[in-house]
Amino acid sequence: MSQMNFSHDTELTLRTICALVNSDRTDGEQLGDQRTLDDYLDGWGWTGRRDRDDDELAAVHRLRGRLGDLFTLLDDEERTVAAVNALLADTRATPWLTRHPEMPEWHLHLASVDDPLAQRMGAEMAMALADLIRGGELRRLKTCAAPDCDAVLVDLSRNRSRRFCDTGNCGNRQHVAAYRERRGQRAAAE
């Protein structure tokens, strides 16, 4: 079984996609205003133009919805590819190599720093998804296996065995529930 080695920027962008999609799936709306959007952008290292207005926030919300919809297509590779290709086309992605003092390794940018925020984000995110697809690793994108959670995740484990998200302590909750059930079954059997 081969293991895909993701570039740093691809891995970071895949995590960023999950954080964006999850920003309205757990604990309510987490990008409800420009301040919370700025916190998200700063936390994930987004640079370039920021208009800081309602139109920009609405465009990021539309991108979030589009990416969230993509997670419903994961069982159908052809439809997923079509959605990623549409996002690449809609964002008019134009790849170019760059590096920054805080990230000295060469990496790709796919839109001008002057392009609108959601366009830049969409282009970068679509390219990270394209890398995942090209590597035959689409199954690394998942929805949390906890029955009460709709969060999404990217499984970067070696054996692709991650099942639970990081947003709600889902793994621990499921393991504790299974332990208690086993303990209860043993007590009932005695």
TrEMBL record:
InterPro entries: ABATE, ABATE_dom_sf, Znf_CGNR
Transmembrane segments: none
Domain Zinc finger CGNR: 140-183
SUPFAM superfamilies per the UniProt record, alphabetical: Jann2411-like
Taxonomy, superkingdom: Bacteria
Pfam family, one: zf-CGNR
Name of the protein described by the UniProt record: Conserved protein containing a Zn-ribbon-like motif, possibly RNA-binding
